[in-house]
Amino acid sequence: MRKLIIIPIAALLFACGEKEPKTASDLNLEDFNQRISYALGADMAAGFANLPDEIYAQLSIEDIEKGFYDLLSADEKENTDECREVLQAALSQPQGIDTTKNTKEEISHCYGSIFGEMLRNSLGAKNAMKEVDINIARIGFRSGLKKEDTLIPLEERQQMIADFNNDMSKLAGEDFMADKNESHADNVEPEGYILVENEAGDGEQLDLTKEYKIKYTLTNIAGDTIISTIQDPNAGDEANTQVVNSNDIVFPEAWKLATDNMKVGGDYTIYAPYDLAFGEDGLTRPRGQGYVVHPYAAVIIHSKVLGQYPLNYLIKERGRKVIEEAKKLPNTKVDESGYVLTTLEEGEGQKIPEGSDVQAHYILKNSRGEMVENSYMSSMRGNKPAPTFSLNGVVEGWQKAVPEMKKGGRYQLVLPYDLAYGEQGNQGIQPYETLTFEMEILDFGESGSLVQPRPQQQQFSQEQLKQLQQQMQQQQGGQQ
Question: Residues 176-189: what's their mean pLDDT?
Answer without folding.
Answer: 97
